[in-house]
Amino acid sequence: MCRAFDVSESGFHAQRTRPVCKRKQENTRLEIEILAAHQRTRETYSAERLHHDLADHGVQTTPYRVRTLRKKLGLRCKQKLKFKATTDSKHHLPVAPNILNREFAVNAPDKVWVSDITYIPTDEGWLYLAGVKDLFNGELVGYAMNERMTRSLVIQALFRATAKKHPDKGLIAHSDSKNTCTRFQ
Q: pTM surpassing 0.90?
């Protein structure tokens, strides 16, 4: 085997019995610290910020060493999702009159429903949720989710609410005057 690797027998046996060098021991300890810090910071810190976090926790090292060991471990920080504007307040669509006039006290169920859309950041991107709520008891009577905020998302939430509750005539369905909610009036 020594001939195959072109090393002397004495050098081969010396390497096998030689203790692990101090630098390798430190790197092994640092790898554990870096993994812990990476998880503690929710995998969002760059090598420089991770270096500062390690220093705050009493671990002395250099940013270059942190960067090298992160690369060796295959650690990457998660990219934060960019904010995405979801409202077009300057649309030219007709807006229904506000007959609710901020009177949120209702004396019976299925008389006034309110709806809105919100977005939820996930690992795969944005998820949009349209909900319909009964103002009488705060019950969520219908909802719909999708990766895109479309007019059909709001309509689907309203259809689900009406299929579940079968409201009488005269129901007030109130939404804000955002672009998506005004398109289906």
A: no
111-126 pLDDT, tens per residue?
A: 888 888 888 888 778 8
Domain of 21 in residue numbering reads as 2-73
Neighbouring residues of 27: CB distance < 8 A, sequence distance ≥ 6: 69
Boundary (domain end) residue, out of 73, 92, 108 = 73
Cβ-proximal residues to 150 (8 Å cutoff; 6+ apart), any chain: 180
From the number of C-beta atoms within 10 Å of its C-beta (0-12, 13-18, 19+), residue 8 rates as exposed
d(CA 132, CA 175): 9
- Is the domain of 170 the same as that of 93? yes
Domain boundary among 43, 73, 103: 73
Amino acid at 59: V
- 38: in domain: yes
Cα 80 to Cα 64: distance, rounded to the nearest angstrom: 24
**pLDDT for 65:** 95
